[in-house]
Amino acid sequence: MISVVDVTKVFPGMEHPAVGGLSLDIDQGEFVVLVGPSGCGKTTTLKMINRIIEPTSGEIWVDGVAATDVPAHDLRRGIGYVIQQIGLFPHRTIAENIATVPQLLGWAKDDIESRVHDLVGRVGLDPAMLPRYPSELSGGQQQRVGVARALAADPPVLLMDEPFGAVDPVVRAQLQEEFLRLQEELAKTVVFVTHDIDEALRMGDRIAILNVGGVLEQFDTPEEILASPANDFVADFIGGERGLKRLGLRAVSSIDLVRGPVVDLSDGKIGAEKAMAEYGTDWVVLLDGDKLLGWVWDNDIDQGSLSDLEPHDFWVELGPESSLRSALNAVVMTRSRVAVVVENGVYQGMAGLDTIAGEVEQ
Ligand SMILES: Nc1ncnc2c1ncn2[C@@H]1O[C@H](COP(=O)(O)OP(=O)(O)O)[C@@H](O)[C@H]1O
Ligand SMILES: [Mg+2]
Stretch 13-39: mean pLDDT, rounded? Predict the structure, then answer.
């Protein structure tokens, strides 16, 4: 969908290129993140894709057409752009901001109005915001407006320059999650810029790691970059806790769970003792059919029949979509040293430290 071919940008009067010989191929519907230190040419690269900046040399293709062959305004019609620092028009209402591109394209008033209302819902804004001005909105709300404005004319390509940069970590995580959900529906081709490697790892199908001067150091999936960083620059940029970050990318459903020391109420004390002996534990999980009731100590069992017991809840019950990182967290936070997985109340099994660690061993 987007091909950047050996593109260099040298700004007038600058000795070193801002972007040097950059090549990237981005597939349709792919979510690619450009990440790298401040000043490494991320914004310049985005602006060359929609021709706000002309490359000094090299070619850029968008949807099979050389970007330089189409008038810039036609090119931009197919490309939504979320600018760094949000960049809403301060003297236009939220509705007017979102309507910017459809208005330029001469859409009918009714069409614009219904599109604006549709978008406001999609990006999680209250329609009551529409007549307000940007300064009346919180940072997170403004960033939502920025995304809605970029999506307004339904462009196949979306360029996003640090779109969630100006908000606190909690709101940022929320915006990231919401946008990923939205992207599942929209399947745009997205080029997303950030300087935050964790944001890149969370969001990207593939990540392009840039060094100063717009030099591409590695272009690969988050999993592959974490498993085998191409060089010291990439390894440094990823930072510590590579193993934990890899666990953060994998779902619990990707590993084989063990059944663990479990007993059905109907199997009684003997069944419980057998299960504990098999796994060498002094606790056992109680099930009612396939429903997880909780766990009890072996001492508790001596007191009465299993169904008279009041089982303890697990500290946390994970779902199949939970990350292995949260599974590891459950393991280290509980004396039983296991992470318990439940789907719709149905017991799925458990994972211990060895299984989880085995997933990221070198
Ligand atoms: N219009 C410009 N004129 C001169 N130099 C520029 C211009 N825009 C950006 N630069 C320089 O190009 C380099 C890359 O900038 P930029 O693409 O904004 O980096 P990033 O977005 O990765 O932080 C920086 O050294 C910056 O100072
Ligand atoms: Mg920038």
Answer: 95
